[in-house]
Amino acid sequence: MNDLQDEIEYLRRITAAVEHQSKVNKWSLYFALGALVVLGIFSAFFASSVGRMATPEKAQATLSDAYSATRRGDLAKALQNVNEVLQRNPRDFEAHYRKGEILIMQGNIEEARESFRAARDIFPVPKYQEAFEAAGGEKRPVTRIIRDRD
Fold first, then answer.
1. What ranges do the domains of the chain cover?
2. Is 95 exposed, middle or buried (0-12, 13-18, 19+ CB in 10 A)?
3. Nearest Cα to 131, choosing from 87, 72, 123, 65?
4. Which of 64, 124, 56, 53 lies closest to 93, judged by CA?
5. CATH code for 56-134?
6. How many angstroms separate the CA atoms of 59 and 36, rounded?
7. Which of 10, 102, 104, 145 shows the greatest Cβ crowding within 10 Å of its Cβ?
8. Model's pTM, two decimal places?
9. Mean pLDDT by 10 residues, the chain (150 residues)
10. pLDDT at residue 29, rounded to an integer
11. Cβ(61)–Cβ(39) below 8 Å
């Protein structure tokens, strides 16, 4: 009789261990599914927002396209590229400066002056002030970023 009770006790322990493992597996599965759902939501959000972000890489790529179009003589395309950069990042002083250069090449001095003014107002260095003055803008002192050393 003792052997039978030992066998029954052994089977109860195995059954308890199996039930416990079943619960652990069930909660592990719930956790894994929850993590996948959260990951899916974040990845969908990130993927949809990346296209709308004004990242420097995107802005520079389009500004590089503007430089290339200018070298090819396609000023309309160059201006379009610069305007796309400015739509994404209105404070891109280099894009304002480049737009001014393109407008000068097209003979549009008034708009070029405004582009040079925008570049100078965002980042007041001599390069942008000189371009603004050359396009007929008023003289104004600007900050020197790098000074000559003795």
1. 1-53, 56-134
2. buried
3. 123
4. 124
5. 1.25.40.10
6. 33
7. 102
8. 0.55
9. 76 76 68 70 59 54 86 93 92 93 93 92 85 80 52
10. 63
11. no
d(CA 114, CA 132): 8
Tokens in use for 57? 């890489």
Tokens representing 28 are 């592990």
Query: What tokens does 128 get?
Result: 């942008």
Both tokens of 111, joined, read 């708009």
Task: Specify the pLDDT at position 90.
Answer: 93
User: Residue 137: left (phi > 0), alpha (psi -120 to 50), or beta?
Assistant: beta
Residue type, 18: V
Tokens of 44: 């969908």
Task: For 5-38, write each residue's pLDDT tens digit.
Answer: 877 787 788 777 777 776 666 667 677 667 777 7
